[in-house]
Design a protein that fits this description.
heterodimer, A: alpha/beta, about 40% helix, about 10% strand, B: mainly alpha, Histone, subunit A, two-stranded antiparallel sheet, 2 strands, about 5% strand, flat
Chain lengths: ~500, ~100
């Protein structure tokens, strides 16, 4: 048993019991990154010196009794759209290649305060726009289960790093599936919390009404611990709220729980092997005592068009701040010296943003144009209201909903990069959860014939994270899918 | 929705993006394809449905107006691509 095989809570307990030191835990993580990441490409920046220095500080805190949290001393990684003071934060973009924040995101501050040690910043689709981590300005990330395939996205670096045992857990962000879909492709447990459960202060914005930060972990117990550590109201994010604490996950069975499977989650476009594994998962939940029934939510059919209109519109507004003046990339001066302000803006943005970001900025700008606003933006907002109402109705009847996280397993690198619509359709089961502001959890539920992980998605009512994690913990106690490590890197 | 070159150019200008010839053609093709798909929304009956801009039933969030330190000027300027005399440097905007 190596230190990197332990879950975050196991490693935290080993540190507390002096079975290993914080420095040993951090060095084990750094050594694994050094050995594997040339092939995986999960990281944009590895913070070796900072992490080792932090390890010594945290060890002193544990020794003097000031750091007692179960995650104290445990190494972790952060998606590169989470601001880290003094450590560059690129958002996977040329625009922010050299940007070094002067403050920590609230989630980073909270994890540091309890003694978590950040070993690096993980790769992502540029500005979190993508489902494959191929739109990163720096390099693609490869799936640890098959390096010819994508890890999913946009938090593909975080998912791959956890799957490859480079870190026991990582934070990601999820605007339309960006935690859950890579968790599904990489065989890890990924939680997208309820909108407002976690402060977004210091998260570089993509679509502010949809963005949420959450953990990618080896199992549900770790996800519960990390979620509890980062959640809670924050004066610096007025949309954050204080949710009641997570209930203990103790119960080994699911008696009394009612789980719905929307027909729309099993329809056209779903890979039959994914469907079979998700129905196996439903059967296991039944055996654990849950009542599982089919239901119908026709409003979900509007989710993809509504999401891409709304997310792109918000992105076009959020990304207008990148103008080459205050921070980030700036285009070189014109050789003829005839510089004007709007020309500099346009050259900076055209050189600093990649293809997918430009695509969504254009789509979003279009949707907000007078003349098109009502037919696209306002229409999508009305569709969003119908989707939320449909979830409210279903979740009044069921404690949780179950379906696939993504319609397929991990696809080959390059397969969808030139076909944006095909890429967007892969988000069909995840985007509705963001539109409705609900918590969603992806858990490994088996593999396809090629050994690629399949993810099952659980959805609950607002602040129902406890229900999702309880189901996941019971499922994982009864099955071993979440423990399967990739052979390629093992 | 018929996407034209003129529409692409006008949207690109509003978004402050300079597109080269290949990017203009790609934008025309991508927007056409994406909007063809998005147009499915028009079939959805949304009569009487209020637009939803946010997942939370938002109210004003108020706090006491208490003085607190703000970011130091050097921190604000730290990431500026060009700066001079404690200011952001930009091309002349007004003649």
């Amino acid at each position: 048993m190596q230190l990197t095989d332990l879950t975050a809570l196991e490693l935290g307990a080993a540190i507390k019991s002096r079975a290993c030191s914080v420095e040993e835990a951090v060095r084990a993580s750094l050594a694994r990154i050094a050995a594997l990441d040339g092939r995986i490409g999960a990281f944009i920046t590895v913070c070796e010196q900072e992490a080792l220095q932090e390890a010594r500080r945290v060890q002193r805190g544990i020794d003097d009794g000031s750091l007692t949290h179960p995650l104290a001393g445990v190494p972790m990684a952060l998606k590169d759209n989470l601001s880290t003071r003094g450590v560059r934060t690129t958002c996977g973009s040329r625009m922010l290649e050299g940007y070094v924040p002067t403050f920590d995101a609230t989630v980073v501050e909270r994890l540091r305060a309890l003694g978590a040690v950040c070993v690096g910043k993980t790769n992502m689709d540029e500005f979190a726009m993508g489902s494959s981590t191929e739109t990163s300005y720096f390099h693609p990330t490869r799936n640890p289960f098959d390096p010819a395939r994508v890890p999913g996205g946009s938090s593909g670096g975080s998912a791959a790093a956890v799957a490859a045992r480079e870190v026991p857990y990582a934070l990601g962000s999820d605007t339309g599936g960006s935690i859950r879909q890579p968790a599904s492709f990489c065989g890890v447990t990924g939680l997208k919390p309820t909108y407002g459960a976690v402060s977004r202060y210091g998260l570089i914005a993509y679509a502010s009404s949809l963005d949420q930060i959450g953990p990618l972990c080896r199992d549900a117990l770790d996800a519960a611990a990390v979620h509890a550590a980062i959640a809670g109201a924050d004066a610096r994010d007025a949309t954050s709220v204080q949710a009641p604490p997570l209930p203990p996950l103790g119960a080994p069975d699911l008696a009394g729980l009612c789980v719905g499977i929307p027909e729309e989650y099993l329809g056209e476009g779903l890979d039959p092997q994914v469907r079979a594994r998700v129905l196996d998962c439903a059967q296991t939940l039944r055996e654990l005592g849950a009542q599982v029934e089919r239901c119908s939510m026709p409003a979900l059919r509007a989710a993809i068009p509504a999401y891409y209109v709304l997310a792109s519109a918000e992105a076009s507004s959020n990304l207008s701040r990148y103008d080459g003046i205050k921070y980030g990339y700036r285009a070189a001066p014109r050789p003829d010296g005839e510089e004007d302000l709007t020309g500099l803006y346009a050259r900076t943005r055209s050189e600093g943003f990649g293809r997918e970001v430009k695509r969504r900025v254009l789509l979003g700008t279009f949707a907000l144009c007078s003349g098109y606003y009502d037919a696209y933006y306002a229409k999508a907002q009305r569709a969003r209201a119908l989707i939320r109402a449909s979830f409210d109705e279903a979740l009044a009847r069921f404690d949780a909903l179950l379906g696939p996280t993504a319609p397929t397993t991990a696809f080959p690198l390059g397969e969808r990069l030139d076909d944006p619509l095909q890429m967007y359709l892969g988000d069909i089961y995840t985007v509705s959860v963001n539109l409705a502001g609900l918590p969603g959890l992806s858990i490994p539920c088996g593999a396809d014939a090629q050994g690629l992980p399949v993810g099952a998605q659980l959805i609950a009512a607002p602040f129902g994270e406890g229900t999702l994690l309880r189901i996941a913990a019971a499922y994982q106690a009864a099955t071993g899918h979440h423990r399967r490590a990739p052979k390629e890197v093992g | 929705m018929k996407v034209t070159r003129e529409l692409v150019d006008s949207v690109a200008h509003l978004a402050r993006l300079d597109l080269d010839a290949a990017e203009r053609e790609a934008a025309l093709r991508d927007l056409t394809r994406i909007l063809d798909y998005v147009d499915a929304l028009s079939a959805l009956d949304t009569d009487g449905v209020q637009p939803m801009s946010h997942a939370l039933r938002l109210q004003n969030v108020l706090r006491a107006d208490e003085p607190a330190p703000s970011m130091a000027a050097q921190d604000v300027l730290q990431n500026a691509p060009e700066r001079k005399d404690g200011c952001f440097l930009a091309p002349r905007a007004v003649e």
